[in-house]
What we know:
- The protein has 192 residues and is of the alpha+beta class.
- The chain has one domain (14-185).
- The protein has 2 helices and 9 strands.
- The strands form 3 sheets. It has a 5-stranded antiparallel sheet.
- It is elongated and about 100 Å long.
Amino acid sequence: xxxxxxxxxxxxxxxxxxxxVAIIGVLASVAIPxxxxxxxxxxxxEAFANLASLAKAQKAFYAExxxxxxxxxxxxxxxxxxxxTIKRDKASIDVAFQAVGWQPxxxxxxxxxxxxxxxxxxxTCTCVGPCFTAAAYGNLDGDATMSxxxxxxxxxxxxxxxxxxxxxxxxxxxxxxxxxxxxARVPAADDF
Length: 192
């Protein structure tokens, strides 16, 4: 009867703990890349919003002065800088785009420029009249390829300008025709 006084306490076995750790590892391997992808997508939203705003400012400037304004890449002035994973000061953008009256809201991940008919930054321009292409360049994921987003406003004949930065980028083709007057990601460039 003396043996009945001891009872064995029950806990988790090593196998049960290893199974739980394996399940957590599988869930983390799925969740972490999805979370990182979501972060990059939200950072790229800056370029969509800023390019749409810049296009409106260019069109408003044209309505008043009958010309578009060409602006070299800002804030860095030159592409190929280290990855743009950290926001940069927008002060140089405010100065460069002052004539158009456009300013981005807050600091930026992307460089911005505008190429117009007859501007030195235009690689090729098929315009026979006033047109512009505004672009955003960034390298959010830190690889060797730039992400490029464009908004192109063609002339009356459908001509447009290519940008000379990041490899002569043209407005993307969607459903058989060029994408004009809306912000579009250049598929030949990096996804982020």
